[in-house]
Design goal:
By secondary structure, the protein is an alpha/beta fold. Helices cover about 45% and strands about 20% of the residues. The chain has a 5-stranded parallel beta sheet, sandwiched between helices.
Length: about 120
Protein backbone atom coordinates (compact mmCIF):
# COMPACT_ATOMS: atom_id res chain seq x y z
CA UNK A 1 0.00 0.00 0.00
CA UNK A 2 1.31 3.45 -0.95
CA UNK A 3 2.35 5.82 1.80
CA UNK A 4 0.38 9.08 1.78
CA UNK A 5 2.18 12.42 2.07
CA UNK A 6 0.48 15.76 2.63
CA UNK A 7 2.31 18.82 1.30
CA UNK A 8 1.21 22.13 2.86
CA UNK A 9 3.16 24.71 0.86
CA UNK A 10 1.89 28.02 -0.54
CA UNK A 11 4.60 28.36 -3.22
CA UNK A 12 2.87 26.69 -6.16
CA UNK A 13 6.14 25.83 -7.96
CA UNK A 14 7.63 24.12 -4.91
CA UNK A 15 4.33 22.38 -4.20
CA UNK A 16 4.09 21.09 -7.78
CA UNK A 17 7.76 19.99 -7.88
CA UNK A 18 7.44 18.10 -4.59
CA UNK A 19 4.18 16.52 -5.67
CA UNK A 20 5.55 15.27 -9.00
CA UNK A 21 8.77 13.95 -7.48
CA UNK A 22 6.99 12.14 -4.65
CA UNK A 23 4.52 10.60 -7.09
CA UNK A 24 7.46 9.38 -9.19
CA UNK A 25 8.73 7.68 -6.03
CA UNK A 26 5.36 5.93 -5.69
CA UNK A 27 3.84 8.01 -2.90
CA UNK A 28 0.21 9.07 -2.81
CA UNK A 29 0.31 12.86 -2.53
CA UNK A 30 -2.24 15.36 -1.24
CA UNK A 31 -1.54 19.08 -1.46
CA UNK A 32 -2.70 22.31 0.06
CA UNK A 33 -1.62 25.90 -0.54
CA UNK A 34 -3.25 27.37 2.58
CA UNK A 35 -3.03 26.81 6.32
CA UNK A 36 -6.65 26.13 7.30
CA UNK A 37 -7.21 23.79 4.37
CA UNK A 38 -3.90 22.07 5.13
CA UNK A 39 -4.90 21.51 8.76
CA UNK A 40 -8.27 20.14 7.64
CA UNK A 41 -6.58 17.70 5.24
CA UNK A 42 -4.09 16.70 7.94
CA UNK A 43 -6.97 15.67 10.19
CA UNK A 44 -9.23 14.08 7.58
CA UNK A 45 -6.96 12.48 4.96
CA UNK A 46 -4.84 10.42 7.40
CA UNK A 47 -1.44 11.15 5.86
CA UNK A 48 1.59 9.10 6.85
CA UNK A 49 3.81 12.20 6.78
CA UNK A 50 3.39 15.97 6.37
CA UNK A 51 5.74 18.40 4.64
CA UNK A 52 4.89 21.76 6.18
CA UNK A 53 5.89 25.29 5.26
CA UNK A 54 5.77 27.84 8.08
CA UNK A 55 4.76 30.98 6.21
CA UNK A 56 1.27 30.13 4.98
CA UNK A 57 -1.81 32.20 4.25
CA UNK A 58 -4.51 31.72 6.87
CA UNK A 59 -3.13 29.47 9.58
CA UNK A 60 0.68 29.53 9.96
CA UNK A 61 2.62 26.29 9.88
CA UNK A 62 3.75 26.64 13.50
CA UNK A 63 0.12 26.69 14.60
CA UNK A 64 -0.76 23.67 12.44
CA UNK A 65 2.04 21.69 14.05
CA UNK A 66 1.09 22.81 17.59
CA UNK A 67 -2.57 21.89 17.05
CA UNK A 68 -1.70 18.47 15.64
CA UNK A 69 0.64 17.71 18.55
CA UNK A 70 -2.14 18.52 21.05
CA UNK A 71 -4.11 15.49 19.86
CA UNK A 72 -2.82 12.07 20.85
CA UNK A 73 -3.72 10.41 17.54
CA UNK A 74 -1.35 12.78 15.67
CA UNK A 75 1.49 12.68 18.22
CA UNK A 76 3.51 10.19 16.16
CA UNK A 77 2.75 11.71 12.76
CA UNK A 78 6.06 12.74 11.16
CA UNK A 79 6.17 16.45 10.26
CA UNK A 80 8.98 17.88 8.16
CA UNK A 81 9.12 21.66 8.38
CA UNK A 82 10.42 22.91 5.07
CA UNK A 83 10.90 26.65 5.28
CA UNK A 84 12.87 29.71 4.29
CA UNK A 85 12.98 30.71 7.97
CA UNK A 86 16.55 29.68 8.57
CA UNK A 87 17.83 30.98 11.88
CA UNK A 88 18.89 28.66 14.68
CA UNK A 89 16.08 30.16 16.80
CA UNK A 90 13.54 29.17 14.13
CA UNK A 91 14.91 25.64 14.09
CA UNK A 92 14.74 25.35 17.88
CA UNK A 93 11.17 26.66 17.87
CA UNK A 94 10.29 24.12 15.17
CA UNK A 95 11.61 21.27 17.31
CA UNK A 96 9.91 22.59 20.46
CA UNK A 97 6.49 22.74 18.79
CA UNK A 98 6.84 19.21 17.48
CA UNK A 99 8.61 19.07 14.13
CA UNK A 100 10.20 15.71 13.43
CA UNK A 101 12.72 17.41 11.15
CA UNK A 102 13.52 21.00 10.16
CA UNK A 103 14.87 21.68 6.67
CA UNK A 104 15.75 25.05 5.18
CA UNK A 105 14.94 26.27 1.68
CA UNK A 106 16.53 26.00 -0.75
CA UNK A 107 16.65 22.29 -0.04
CA UNK A 108 18.26 19.27 -1.62
CA UNK A 109 15.59 16.93 -3.03
CA UNK A 110 17.68 13.79 -2.46
CA UNK A 111 18.24 14.74 1.17
CA UNK A 112 14.51 15.37 1.61
CA UNK A 113 13.65 11.99 0.08
CA UNK A 114 16.19 10.25 2.32
CA UNK A 115 14.69 11.94 5.38
CA UNK A 116 11.16 11.01 4.32
CA UNK A 117 12.24 7.41 3.96
CA UNK A 118 13.88 7.41 7.41
CA UNK A 119 10.89 9.00 9.13
CA UNK A 120 8.42 6.60 7.52
CA UNK A 121 10.52 3.60 8.66
CA UNK A 122 10.45 4.93 12.24
CA UNK A 123 6.68 5.32 12.20
Amino acid sequence: MKKKILIIEDDKDINRTLCLRLQMDDFEVITSHEGYEGFYKATTEQPDLIILDLKLPGLPGEEICKQLRKEEKYAGLPVIMLTAKGTQVDEVIGKVIGASLYMRKPFDMDELLKNISLLLKEK
